[in-house]
Amino acid sequence: MTEQQQTGSGWARSLLKDFYYSQTFRAVAFTPIDAVERAIGRTDPLTPPRRLQYVGRREDFEAVGAYWRGRLVDEHGLRSDGSVLDIGCGVGRNAVALIPHLTTGRYEGFDVVPQFIRWCRRQITPRHPNFRFELADVRNRQYNRFGGSPANEYEFPYSDESFDVVFATSVFTHMRPDEIRRYMAESTRVLKPGGRLVITFFLVDFEVRELLAQRRSAFSLDHEFEDPDGTPYLGADARVPEFCIGVEEDIVLGMADGAGLERVGAVEHGSWSGRPGTEAHGYQDLVVLTKPAG
C-alpha cells in the first residue's frame, strides 16, 4: 500500500469512527431497538440502553464489570465497606458490578461524557445512594471536544486521602502523556496511604514496536506525536490522537515514580499488541501502583 493509500484509508477510518460515535447516528440506529426492548420488558433498569453502550457488545456489559469486580476485590483488597474512585466511569459498567459487594462502602465515579453521567445519576444513585457520579468538564477531542478544562490541569473533586482504591480502565489509553501525568498525581493525592491505583494502558517498548511494524497487533499505532511538554506518544488517528494512544512503558513507570507511587508486581502485558504469552491476560496492559503507607 502506498503512503497516499494509507493516508486515504486512515481518513476513511477516522470519518467512519466519527459517524459511529455520533449521538445522532446512535439515536437513529438504536433508539427504536431500545424502545422495543423496553416495551416487551426485556431490559434491566441497571443495564444502559444500547445507544449509550459505545464499547464492546451489549452482552459483555455484565461480564466485563464482573471481571473487574473480581480483580478489585480478590487481588486489590477492596472491602465491602471500602471507598473506590472510578476514573472515566462511563455508563456505569463497573459501578453496577460493584453494587452487590460495596454494601456499606462508597463509590465515586466521574466521566467527561454528559449523557453517561445523566443516565447513572438517574438509574443508579436513586436505588443505591452510596454510588455517586460527577461530570468532569474536561476537554478530550474523542469524547468531549467542547469541554471547558484541559485534562492536564484538572483537579479531581475529592478530598485528600479519601479512597482505598482508584482505578481507570480504558481511560489513559485516550490521554496524552502530560494528561496522564496529571491524573496520576491527582490519584496519588486522593488515595489513602497504602491504597492502590489500578490502571490500564497501551504500553509500547521495543518488542511492541516490532509487532506494530509487522502488523501483528490488534490495531495500528502508526502516527507519532508529542505532548505540549515534548513527551512522545503514538496514536491510531492522525486527526484525533485521543481515539487510541500508546505510551512508552518506561515513560509511564517514570511518571509513577514522579508521583511518589510504588509498583505492585510486574506489569501485566495484555493481548492487544500480539506479544507472545499474553493470550490468557486481559486485552490492555495493566499497571498496579500503591501509595506508600508512611
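The above is record 1. Record 2 follows with the same two-line structure.
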Amino acid sequence: MIKTAIATIAAMTLLFAPSQTLHIDHAAPTPLAASYEPSGYPLICDPTLRNVVQFTWIASPDEPVDKIAVEAQLRKIAEQVNWLFWRDADSYREMRLPAWKVTADCKLDIRWSNGLITGTIPPVDGEAKLIQIEDTDRYCGYAYVNVDDEPGPGNMNNWSSLAAVSRQCLGVFVVAHELLHSIGAVQPSAPHDDGKFHTTQFDIMGTISADNCGIYDKIDCGNDDYFSLTPGNRFTGRWNSADSIFLVNVPKHLVWLPIHMRCETC
C-alpha cells in the first residue's frame, strides 16, 4: 500500500516546478505524537491578505460534510498552530503568525472539494499554501519543499505550493510540521539537518527522541536551523523560514508588573 501511495503521489511532482521535492511523512515524528492540547492564539482577521495559508477539505463524492463542525475543528487547530508560533518567537517585540485565509466575518475560509486530489494547485486570489485534509491511511502528511537556501523574498519557498494531512493524523503538531515544510524547513544547510528535511533535534521538525530543548514540541530548538526572528549570523546567507511571505508580522506585547506586585517566592 505504501509503495502504491508513493508512486501515486510522486506522479504529482510532474505538475509542479522541477525544483520542488515531495516529502512524505508516513507517520508522525516522535515530537508530534504528544497527547496534550496546546492553548490557542486568535487568527489574524484580515480578509485582504493575498499570501495566505488555506485549508482544503477533501471528501468522497457521496460523503455528507458538516461544514460547521469542520470549520470549528480546523479553526481550533489553526489557533493552536498560532500559539506555537507565538510561544516560540525568539523576540520580545514581534512574532510571525501564519496568514490563515479568513472570510469577511473572520471565519476560516475553507475550500471544499468532493472528489480525489488531482495534484494541481487550484486557482486562488493571490498566492497560497494549500493544506489539503484527506480521508486516507496512505500517509500522515506530505508537503512540497523547495531546496533553495537563498535568503530574501525571491526564495522559491515563497511560491504557492501544496501540502496535505490525513484525517487520521489531523492535529496541531502535524499541521504545523507540514506548514513548516512548505515554507522551506528544513534546508540541507541547517546545522542539525538529517538529510531528509528534518532535524536531529527534538523539536517539531525533529526525529531524535531526546529532550535537548527544554520544550519537546518547540519550533526550531536553538533557533538556528529553520526559524528565528533574531537570526544574526546564524542565518547569514541562508534561508530563514521566518521570512516567509505566508507569515504576518504581529507585535508581541509584554506586561510588566509593578515591583510591589511581583512574587518574591515564585
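The first strand starts at residue 20 and ends at 25.
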